[in-house]
Amino acid sequence: MSDVKSARPLSPHLSIYRFSPTMAMSIVHRITGGALYVGTLLLVWWLVAAASGPDAFSTASAVFGSFIGQLVLFGYTWALVHHMLGGLRHFAWDMGHADSKETSTKLAVATLVGSVTITVVLWLGILIFG
Amino acid sequence: MSDFRTPLRRVRGLGAAGGTEHFWQQRLTALANAVLITCFVILLLTLMNESYEGVRAAFANPFVGILMALMVVSATIHMKLGMQVIIEDYIHGAAKLPLLILNTFFAIAVAAACLFAIVKMSFGV
């Protein structure tokens, strides 16, 4: 039985598929999910710093406010928005909508355009009003 | 060694049975995340230029504390489930089980640290 097991195809079967937007957005959904997973450490840091006292909080604020910090938060915002829009897309599919080839391709492109747009608008708002 | 058990007997209870529950929990927490994390982003935007005292005052508000605690619980369950699928998809050797255990521990550690901080700030200590 063991050779049967080892010959079994294992996901991901990336090499056998032609590139498509839905495929790319599926991969990006995973990558953003993984990034958000690791990035929860930023949330831990911010909350624990705020709970610890003014010194720890000002250290965290300084790092988050630095150029690198803002860059990381910008990326984290995009990952969050993209993963959220991707999740809403999954909800549509779960309920049996928008799953034709053409519609799902359009939706995949819309997810990317939407996530970039929302992230840029959010950060423009932060830069202008912040 | 020949195994006299049928293939069906050997695989019964080895995962497929829990798939529906996993799927359901993933979607349930996704729905909760969409609402709660949106609240969190709005909170962050309002606190952007606040001082330490301003942030602590916000977290002393029961609604903020409860929403934040709910977000942490929902998000950490969601990320544990998501990373579990990633591990199950890509890791097939001896590292799989330790990674699955680490994944659960990481999610619980993140939840514990966040909840401790939120509760501490809620009670103003």
UniProtKB/TrEMBL annotation, chain A:
<dbReference type="GO" id="GO:0046872">
    <property type="term" value="F:metal ion binding"/>
</dbReference>
<dbReference type="GO" id="GO:0016020">
    <property type="term" value="C:membrane"/>
</dbReference>
<dbReference type="InterPro" id="IPR034804">
    <property type="entry name" value="SQR/QFR_C/D"/>
</dbReference>
<keyword id="KW-0408">Iron</keyword>
<keyword id="KW-1133">Transmembrane helix</keyword>
<comment type="similarity">
    <text>Belongs to the cytochrome b560 family.</text>
</comment>
<keyword id="KW-0479">Metal-binding</keyword>
<feature type="transmembrane region" description="Helical">
    <location>
        <begin position="27"/>
        <end position="48"/>
    </location>
</feature>
<keyword id="KW-0472">Membrane</keyword>
<dbReference type="GO" id="GO:0009055">
    <property type="term" value="F:electron transfer activity"/>
</dbReference>
<dbReference type="InterPro" id="IPR014314">
    <property type="entry name" value="Succ_DH_cytb556"/>
</dbReference>
<dbReference type="InterPro" id="IPR000701">
    <property type="entry name" value="SuccDH_FuR_B_TM-su"/>
</dbReference>
<feature type="transmembrane region" description="Helical">
    <location>
        <begin position="60"/>
        <end position="81"/>
    </location>
</feature>
<dbReference type="Pfam" id="PF01127">
    <property type="entry name" value="Sdh_cyt"/>
</dbReference>
<feature type="binding site" description="axial binding residue">
    <location>
        <position position="83"/>
    </location>
    <ligand>
        <name>heme</name>
    </ligand>
</feature>
<dbReference type="InterPro" id="IPR018495">
    <property type="entry name" value="Succ_DH_cyt_bsu_CS"/>
</dbReference>
<comment type="subunit">
    <text>Part of an enzyme complex containing four subunits: a flavoprotein, an iron-sulfur protein, plus two membrane-anchoring proteins, SdhC and SdhD. The complex can form homotrimers.</text>
</comment>
<comment type="function">
    <text>Membrane-anchoring subunit of succinate dehydrogenase (SDH).</text>
</comment>
<dbReference type="GO" id="GO:0006099">
    <property type="term" value="P:tricarboxylic acid cycle"/>
</dbReference>
<feature type="transmembrane region" description="Helical">
    <location>
        <begin position="107"/>
        <end position="129"/>
    </location>
</feature>
<keyword id="KW-0812">Transmembrane</keyword>
<keyword id="KW-0349">Heme</keyword>
UniProtKB/TrEMBL annotation, chain B:
<keyword id="KW-1133">Transmembrane helix</keyword>
<keyword id="KW-0816">Tricarboxylic acid cycle</keyword>
<dbReference type="GO" id="GO:0016020">
    <property type="term" value="C:membrane"/>
</dbReference>
<comment type="pathway">
    <text>Carbohydrate metabolism; tricarboxylic acid cycle.</text>
</comment>
<feature type="transmembrane region" description="Helical">
    <location>
        <begin position="28"/>
        <end position="47"/>
    </location>
</feature>
<keyword id="KW-0249">Electron transport</keyword>
<keyword id="KW-0812">Transmembrane</keyword>
<dbReference type="InterPro" id="IPR000701">
    <property type="entry name" value="SuccDH_FuR_B_TM-su"/>
</dbReference>
<dbReference type="InterPro" id="IPR014312">
    <property type="entry name" value="Succ_DH_anchor"/>
</dbReference>
<dbReference type="GO" id="GO:0020037">
    <property type="term" value="F:heme binding"/>
</dbReference>
<feature type="transmembrane region" description="Helical">
    <location>
        <begin position="59"/>
        <end position="79"/>
    </location>
</feature>
<dbReference type="GO" id="GO:0046872">
    <property type="term" value="F:metal ion binding"/>
</dbReference>
<keyword id="KW-0408">Iron</keyword>
<comment type="function">
    <text>Membrane-anchoring subunit of succinate dehydrogenase (SDH).</text>
</comment>
<comment type="subunit">
    <text>Part of an enzyme complex containing four subunits: a flavoprotein, an iron-sulfur protein, plus two membrane-anchoring proteins, SdhC and SdhD.</text>
</comment>
<keyword id="KW-0813">Transport</keyword>
<keyword id="KW-0349">Heme</keyword>
<dbReference type="InterPro" id="IPR034804">
    <property type="entry name" value="SQR/QFR_C/D"/>
</dbReference>
<keyword id="KW-0479">Metal-binding</keyword>
<dbReference type="Pfam" id="PF01127">
    <property type="entry name" value="Sdh_cyt"/>
</dbReference>
<dbReference type="GO" id="GO:0006099">
    <property type="term" value="P:tricarboxylic acid cycle"/>
</dbReference>
<keyword id="KW-0472">Membrane</keyword>
